[in-house]
Structure formats: structure tokens, C-alpha cells
Amino acid sequence: MSSYPLSTAKEELSRLIDQAQRGEVVTITREGKPVAELRALEIAPKGRPSAQLIDEIATRAKLRSPLGQSAESIVREMRDEEP
After folding, report:
1. What's the rounded Cα separation, in Å, for the pair 71 and 77?
2. What pLDDT sits at residue 83?
3. What 3-state DSSP class applies to 81?
4. Cβ contacts of residue 19 below 8 Å, gap of 6+?
5. Domain annotation covers residue 55
6. DSSP per-residue letters across 6-74
7. pTM of the predicted model, to two decimals?
8. Do both 34 and 56 map to the same domain?
9. CB 26 within 8 A of CB 20
10. The pLDDT of residue 54
């Protein structure tokens, strides 16, 4: 962990952000006291959901009560209703 006074942080913000992105925690101080930290955010990767998440969703879906009729018939009824 590195520490920088506010005046230095203002001048070198881009470099300090680069340090944070590499995994280092950067502390910013004012009058010698820590006032802020810069650290990288953990962002979830985009793409296909994990197999575990898919299994969890499928398990929850199986536990839900059935609608009593198919989705097709529900949509057909909604479409055919008179306004």
C-alpha cells in the first residue's frame, strides 16, 4: 500500500489510478492523515452465466407452483379478449 499527499495525488492521478488497477491500494492523505483510498473495482465478466447459476435458476423454477395452463393458452386468451 502506498500513500500520497493530496497535492501529489492531484498532479499524478492517472498514474495512481494505474497503480490501483494493478491491484495496489493507494491512500491519499491530507495533513498527514489518510482521507481516501483508490482501489480497483471487481467487475463481473460479461458472457454466459455460470453453470451453477443456471442450475440454481432451474431449481427455483421447479419449486414454483404451476400456472394451471400453458403460456400459449394464456397469451391466446389475452390476444383474443375483446377490448
Report:
1. 10
2. 66
3. coil
4. 2, 26, 38
5. yes
6. HHHHHHTHHHHHHHHHTT--EEEEETTEEEEEE-----PPPSSPPHHHHHHHHHHHHHSPP-SS-HHHH
7. 0.51
8. no
9. yes
10. 92
End-to-end CA distance of the chain: 67
State which residues form the domain around 64.
51-80
Task: Please check whether residue 43 lies inside any domain of the structure.
Answer: no
Query: For 15-21, what is the mean pLDDT?
Result: 94
CATH number of the domain at 14, please. 3.40.1620.10
What nine digits make up the cell of 77?
Answer: 386468451
User: Rounded CA gap, 16 and 25, in Å?
Assistant: 9
Render pLDDT for 38-47 as a digit per residue (tens, 0 to 9). 999 877 677 8
Domain annotation covers residue 58: yes
Looking at residue 44, what is its pLDDT? 67
For residue 3, give the C-alpha cell: 500513500
